[in-house]
Write a structure and sequence with these properties.
With about 280 residues, this protein is an alpha/beta fold. It has one domain (about 15-275): Rossmann fold, CATH 3.40.50.720. About 40% of the residues lie in helices and about 15% in strands. It has helices at about 30-40, 50-65, 80-95, 115-145, 165-185, 205-210, 225-235, 260-265, 270-275, and strands at about 15-20, 45-50, 70-75, 100, 150-155, 190-200, 250. The N and C termini lie far apart (about 60 Å).
Length: about 280
């Protein structure tokens, strides 16, 4: 078979995909991801702590792809429930080809000296420990299959300081380091592990965007939408990423490049005439 024959579905036709956080609470990324996998022919297990949100995602999927989605209520911090749910998914589908973990958020935004210890621990658990619990559970399954794709979700907060707080930034940075360790251990069993690093992501809202002081520093001119993040996740889970592992893929419209707005950037540069005349 030609390596290019998978173009239509990216090699995802018939694959079994589990999306943790598929209810879409995390800026809609989980729902958009689950729907896109289904559109490309995958069977999607939608997992979420909010069973109603997961059911709505499944309804949207099954309306356009009959019986393509199933629903499991899952607390990603409950290790026993994660193990039980994986067993049930395997009983239904016989394998799990892709594991996507889209769980995160933060409680409170305070300076370091004001972060209560219980809030610190909670934010680390939500953003990091949940990814560890899920990855620890899926890894032996994919090792037995000698095949699999794992995609985690970090944040642009991992790349710098964050107004969301040190606890959130630390947890999201740790996701990247954990992903690399997981990629190394899984690679010898033909398991690819990668992460996306989303920038600000929300449904189109021009008025809100105009009020956001960060937008002038975004080279591509808009913030990401849930579908933009979903496309990156699906790519990393597809046959087109077979030789990619241990990568943290920034999906932020170039925001990290834009340390100043375009007009300020231009104002700091000399014209060719001034350079030739030796004006410094």
């Amino acid at each position: 078979m030609s390596n290019y024959e998978v173009a239509g579905s990216l090699g995802l036709q018939g694959k079994i995909v589990a999306v943790v956080g598929g209810g879409g609470a995390n800026n809609g990324i989980g729902r958009a991801t689950a729907i896109l996998f289904a559109k490309l022919g995958a069977k999607v297990a939608v997992l979420d702590i909010n069973s109603e949100a997961a059911a709505e995602t499944a309804r949207l999927i099954n309306a356009v792809a009959e019986n393509a989605a199933s629903v499991w209520q899952l607390d990603a911090l409950n290790a026993d429930q994660v193990d039980k749910t994986l067993k049930e998914i395997l009983e239904k589908y016989k394998r799990i080809d892709v594991w996507v973990h889209i769980v995160g958020g933060h409680k409170g935004r305070t300076l370091i000296e004001e972060i209560p210890l219980d809030v610190w621990k909670l934010n680390i658990e939500i953003n990091l420990t949940s990814a560890f619990i899920g990855s620890r559970a899926i890894l032996p399954i994919m090792k037995r299959q000698r095949n699999g794709k794992i995609v985690l979700v970090s944040s642009f907060a991992a790349r710098s300081i964050s107004v969301s707080g040190a606890d959130y930034a630390v947890a999201k940075a740790a996701i990247i380091t954990f992903m690399k360790q997981l990629a190394y251990e899984g690679g010898f069993f033909n398991i690819n592990v990668n992460a996306i690093v989303p920038g600000p992501t929300h449904e189109p809202n021009p008025e809100k965007d105009r009020r956001d002081g960060r937008l002038p520093r975004v080279p591509l001119g808009r913030f990401a939408r849930p579908e933009d993040q979903a496309k990156a996740i699906v790519f990393l889970a597809s046959a087109w990423s077979e030789m990619i592992t241990g990568v943290a893929l920034d999906v932020d419209a170039g925001m990290q490049l834009g340390f100043v707005d375009w007009e300020t950037y231009l104002s700091k540069h000399q014209s060719p005439t001034n350079i030739r005349e030796g004006n410094h």
